């Protein structure tokens, strides 16, 4: 990861763009779908000597992909984030990693493990019953797999964009306007992007084919209606940008620059950008 940005944006941004919100959504969904998904195998293929190989499950179901920007967002902003991913791809050819594309796989893995290991049985009233403690153990393992996969993507990405909306970040007006989040996954991603090793820009410019990428959750933004837990959201290290910055970035891009993110970086890391331009001669 080279840089992180705190992007305040809403659907109105797309009113001034060449395409509609729905069109950018479609582009985003198609672009993200083209990245492919994990290789889903039967649970039996991961069992050796009666032990489930968690590392192999993580590698197959949550593979690392090539992307330029990791988009961290609320599950309630999925449509907005698809449009943002579409706009970035359509405007600059930048590939995004959207964490919500892997949440469903976490649920699938949990269902698969619970069916075999959590004493699944039919309920007299319909549906199924499971052993509570065994379900908790399955949840711990699946959440750890997803957590590690997302952290690897953050470390691998060139930039992280927090999609800051009223659904993802809340202001604690009782504590000097400290940013809060109710999502444990946004919290994890923000902390990870704060402490992850920062790579120099040259790392991404030396190898143009380097894989970069992003995230958030396992549909746990709403843990349940009766339980809401808040976390201090460490956004202070992220560079604040808004819709005007995106418009300026788009206007300055001539379609020929080999690294579109450099244009965005230029206002914040000018010396780093210039140093790399001279060294790599682009």
Give structural attributes:
282 residues; alpha/beta
Detailed description of the structure:
The protein has 10 helices and 12 strands. By secondary structure, the chain is of the alpha/beta class. The chain has one domain. The strands form 4 sheets. The chain has a 5-stranded parallel sheet, sandwiched between helices. A 3-stranded antiparallel sheet has the order 9-10-11. Strands 2-3 form a two-stranded antiparallel ribbon. α2 packs across α5, α4 (100-117) packs antiparallel against α5 and α5 packs parallel to α6 (184-195). The protein is globular, with a radius of gyration of 20 Å. This is TIR domain-containing protein.
Question: What's the SSE blueprint?
Answer:
Elements (H helix, E strand, L loop, with lengths): L2 E6 L12 H13 L13 E2 L2 E2 L1 H8 L7 E4 L5 H15 L3 E3 L1 H18 L3 E2 L5 E2 L2 H25 L2 E6 L5 E3 L5 E4 L2 H12 L5 H6 L24 E2 L6 E3 L1 H10 L7 H6 L4 H11 L2
Protein name: TIR domain-containing protein
Organism: Eubacterium ventriosum ATCC 27560
